[in-house]
């Protein structure tokens, strides 16, 4: 519907790329604080149960775990490249690179699934008998392990859906060389999800 | 239906589009403000009713109308609704949404659609909270604080209640984010940060707290959900967890949250007083900086809720000292408001009455806050009715009164009509008396040693409880008169565009009710927000109509 007011000379919906990015950054703060709360809990419980956390992390497979940061770091590269591609007006390549990012996200999730599945096979999964018998402290290590990596996995899924939607709109042309802020924002979110993993990985696998 | 504008007529935001659907898909900040208004008032009335029920139970010792378990559920639901559905969103989501863009000379907020999404999240959270009444073993009975380990063990619907709070937190974050970007990007030309009125400033400080503190409660509540549904005993001492850590996490959010409740109310008071005194606000910059200081220091005082939870001695002393620090900026504001009144041409109209009541009651709330903030005295009154009296003085006597003051203040701008001023005054007086009758006796009861969260009490506490219950009826009568008067006001006389003779943009440069994008042309700002020198001349030149 066309404007039905006398205030037609105020054009309210001009596209504010800077504002949109500002909004995204503020949103990223909230994500950092969401995980920040968990890092706090981790720090407190590690302090309370030092030896048990030591044993817990010895039970995780570092090699399998180390694949994932590499995968995610690569996916950050492809996302960053897709932004550059779009800025240069090559939307086909931009979409391709998003697809590569999604494939890497899938690889990450598959690896995660494999890790969790081995835990499952050992009865070390929340709700299973062996899990319930875990001694104090070590139980807390695995509680946090499953909670934090689980929450992170949910973020990977959300980020992937976001990138898919963005790819769709690039294809439609709504997101384009002039208006690429949404892709940038999607990329920012993806970088954040990865940065969180960069911290999760040493906390659970490396620190002993 | 499309109306065609003719010269000399204007089409206000109600008339732009008609029909129920046009409201459900609107992106107009004023309509979204009204959507919030109706939803929030609905929840307020429900929770108010629960308050009356509790007071009735406490009219005399022994069981009166509720059994203990029901009483626990009632005060929990009352607390959850009042906190998460009324007092936190109340002023920002309704009056912030409505007035913020107009106060800074903008056509809307930065993300109009996100604004609507926030409202839907609010409604979803509210419905989740109410749904706990309908199934399972009844609504949560933990108190609004959901303390572990009880919140993990109880069979009542804690999981859903906690998810409701999580969703509401998300809504609150998105509103805050929206406001921050709005203020950074959309101020009218000439409106520098220090020409921005004080209500936007208060919302700005609030928004940062919403953004930076809410995620902490979000994750904490998710941990409760994980513990209840997946069996991850994150706060279970038998597994190496620590229930006191839950309390820390809860209050890391919930103390800053009391400033999410208080700062917007202070903004309303700062906005109201100069208008009815026709004088520039005393110490504008000091009020700005004190808002920011409150937002900042407010992060570091949460431990004062846990003086009896077994923290170390030094930690308790530090938290107590910091609590005294955070009281200073609030006190500065009270000083500034009173100084603004000094030698002003005071025009006692309803909005000013509510603002004055705010100052009086907020001062009582603040001073009793020092009693509970001081380590030594808190040990005595912790978990007594003194605390219940204290926080109602702050939240209801302070923010609640500012809320209704804002409603009376913006009423003619929102609906373009004026309510009956005489009845509004009468309602105010009854409301004010009722309020103090309910809560002052609670302060006394707490000093006498009556614990909170019980459906019963010892016979020696009878008289103050009786007074408090009678007061709750007076309060209810005041509320009913106020609301009836406001509802009738919709058919009242047409209000002029600027009935209070304010010089801020929301009154001078817009119609009542405003048009869709508020301004005919983007206003140019030259004056400070409360410059009342020669204001009659200024208004003659600028007022609409
Ligand atoms: C702005 C309005 C109000 C707010 C923000 C508010 C908030 C709260 C909160 C957070 C609690 C604590 C619940 C808990 O312990 O978990 C509470 C308790 C209580 N409220 Fe309100 N309330 C408001 C209005 C009222 C009204 C209108 C009444 C009565 C007419 C009332 C009566 C009570 C009583 C009696 C308790 C104490 C229950 C107990 O500790 O046994 N409140 N309120
Ligand atoms: Cu506090």
Summarize it.
The complex is a heterodimer of chains A (208) and B (545). Chain A is mainly alpha-helical.
Provide tags for this entry.
heterodimer, A: 208 residues, mainly alpha, Four Helix Bundle (Hemerythrin (Met), subunit A), 7 helices, elongated, B: 545 residues, Cytochrome C Oxidase, Chain A, 18 helices, disordered N terminus, binds protoporphyrin IX containing FE, binds copper (II) ion
What does this structure look like?
The complex is a heterodimer of chains A (208) and B (545). Chain A has 208 residues and is an all-alpha fold. Chain A has one domain: Cytochrome c oxidase, subunit III, four-helix bundle (Four Helix Bundle (Hemerythrin (Met), subunit A), Up-down Bundle), CATH 1.20.120.80. Chain A has seven helices and no strands. Chain A is elongated and about 60 Å long. The termini of chain A are far apart. By secondary structure, chain B is mainly alpha-helical. Chain B has one domain: Cytochrome C Oxidase, Chain A. Helices cover 66% and strands 0% of the residues of chain B. In chain B, helix 12 runs antiparallel to helix 14. The longest helix of chain B is centred in the middle third of the chain and has 35 residues. The N terminus of chain B is likely disordered. The interface between A and B is large, with 47 and 53 residues. The site of protoporphyrin IX containing FE (HEM) has 25 residues of chain B, from helix 2, helix 3, helix 14 and helix 16.
């Amino acid at each position: 519907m066309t404007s039905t007011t006398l205030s037609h000379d105020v054009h309210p919906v001009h596209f504010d790329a800077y504002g949109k990015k500002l909004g995204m950054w503020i949103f990223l703060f909230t994500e950092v604080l969401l995980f920040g709360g968990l890092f706090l809990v981790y720090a407190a419980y590690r302090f309370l149960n030092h030896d048990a956390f030591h044993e817990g992390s010895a039970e995780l497979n570092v090699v399998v775990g180390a694949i994932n940061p590499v995968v995610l770091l690569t996916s950050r590269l492809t996302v960053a490249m897709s932004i550059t591609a779009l800025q240069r007006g090559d939307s086909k390549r931009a979409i391709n690179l998003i697809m590569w990012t999604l494939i890497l996200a899938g690889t990450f999730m598959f690896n995660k699934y494999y890790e969790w599945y081995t835990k499952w096979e050992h009865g070390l999964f929340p709700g299973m008998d062996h899990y319930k018998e875990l001694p104090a402290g070590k139980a807390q290590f695995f509680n946090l392990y499953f909670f934090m990596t689980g929450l992170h996995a949910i973020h990977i899924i959300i980020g992937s859906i976001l990138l898919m939607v963005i790819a769709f709109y690039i294809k439609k042309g709504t997101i384009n060389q002039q208006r690429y802020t949404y892709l940038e924002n999607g990329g920012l979110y993806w970088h954040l999800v990865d940065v969180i993993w960069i911290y999760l990985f040493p906390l659970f696998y490396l620190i002993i | 239906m499309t109306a065609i504008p003719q010269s000399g007529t204007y089409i206000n935001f109600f008339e732009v589009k008609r029909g129920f659907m046009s409201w459900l898909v609107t992106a107009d900040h004023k309509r979204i403000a009204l959507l919030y208004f109706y939803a929030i008032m609905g929840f307020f009335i429900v929770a108010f009713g629960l308050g009356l029920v509790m007071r009735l139970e406490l009219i005399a010792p022994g069981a009166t109308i509720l059994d203990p378990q029901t009483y626990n559920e009632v005060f929990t639901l009352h607390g959850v609704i009042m906190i998460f559905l009324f007092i936190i969103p109340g002023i920002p989501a309704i009056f912030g949404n409505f007035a913020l863009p107009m106060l800074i000379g903008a056509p809307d907020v930065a993300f109009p659609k996100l604004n609507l999404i926030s409202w839907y999240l609010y409604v979803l959270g509210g419905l989740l909270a109410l749904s706990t009444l309908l199934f399972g073993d009844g609504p949560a009975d933990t108190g609004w604080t959901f303390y572990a380990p009880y919140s993990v063990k109880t069979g009542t619907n804690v999981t859903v209640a906690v998810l409701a709070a999580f969703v509401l937190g998300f809504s609150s974050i998105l509103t805050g984010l929206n406001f921050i970007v709005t203020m950074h990007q959309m101020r009218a030309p000439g409106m520098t940060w220090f020409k921005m009125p004080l209500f936007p400033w208060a919302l700005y400080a609030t928004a940062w707290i919403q953004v930076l503190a809410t995620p902490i409660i979000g994750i904490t509540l998710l941990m409760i959900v994980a513990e209840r549904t997946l069996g991850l005993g994150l706060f279970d001492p038998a597994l190496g967890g620590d229930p006191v850590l839950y309390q820390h996490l809860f209050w890391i959010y919930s103390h800053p949250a009391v400033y999410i409740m208080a700062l917007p109310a202070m903004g309303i008071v700062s906005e109201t007083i100069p208008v009815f005194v026709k004088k520039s606000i005393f110490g504008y910059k000091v009020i700005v900086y004190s808002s920011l200081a409150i937002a900042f220091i407010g992060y570091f005082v949460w431990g004062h809720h846990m003086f009896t939870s077994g923290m170390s001695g030094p930690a308790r002393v530090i938290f107590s000292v910091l609590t005294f620090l955070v009281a200073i900026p609030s006190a500065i504001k009270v000083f500034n408001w009173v100084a603004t009144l000094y030698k002003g041409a005071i025009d006692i109209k309803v909005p000013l009455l509510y603002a004055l009541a705010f100052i009086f009651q907020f001062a009582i709330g603040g001073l009793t806050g020092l009693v509970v903030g001081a380590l030594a005295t808190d040990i005595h009154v912790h978990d007594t009715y003194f605390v219940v009296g204290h926080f109602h003085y702050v939240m209801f006597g302070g923010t609640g009164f500012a809320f209704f003051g804002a409603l009376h203040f913006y009423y003619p701008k929102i609906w373009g009509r004026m309510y009956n001023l005489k009845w509004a005054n009468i309602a105010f007086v009854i409301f004010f008396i009722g309020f103090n009758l309910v809560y002052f006796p609670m302060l006394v009861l707490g000093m006498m040693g009556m614990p909170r969260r019980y459906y019963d009490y010892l016979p020696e506490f009878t008289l103050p409880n009786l007074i408090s219950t009678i007061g709750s009826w007076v309060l209810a009568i005041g509320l009913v008169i106020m609301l009836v008067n406001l509802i009738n006001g919709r058919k009242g006389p047409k209000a002029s565009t600027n009935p209070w003779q304010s010089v801020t943009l929301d009154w001078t440069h817009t119609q009542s009710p405003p048009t869709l994008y508020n301004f005919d042309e983007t206003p140019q700002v030259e004056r400070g927000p409360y410059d009342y020198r020669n204001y009659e001349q200024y208004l003659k030149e600028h007022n609409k109509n």
